Amino acid sequence: MPKLLDYIRWRGDLSFESQPFNSVDAALFAHLIYLPYDSSVGGHKIGEASKRLLFKRTKPYQLNKMDTTEIELLPLSDRYRKMEILDWTDYMQKKPAVQFTAATIRLNKDTIIVTFRGTDGTMIGLNEDVDMSYRPEIVGQTIAADYLKAMAEKYPHDRIYTIGHSKGGNFAAYAVSALPIEAQDRVIKAFSFDGPGFMRSTYSSPSFQRILPKLITYVPEGSIFGMMLDHPERTLVVRSNAHMLKQHDPRRWRVARNGFVLAPGLSNASRVIRNSFISWNTKIPREKRESFWLALFSALEDEKITEFNQLTANKLRGAIQFSHAYLSLDPEIRLVANEIISDIAATARQHINIPFVNKAKILEPLGNDSSKGPIVNDSYDGS
Question: Which InterPro entries does the record cross-reference, listed alphabetically (predicted)?
Answer without folding.
Answer: AB_hydrolase_fold (IPR029058), Mbeg1-like (IPR024499)
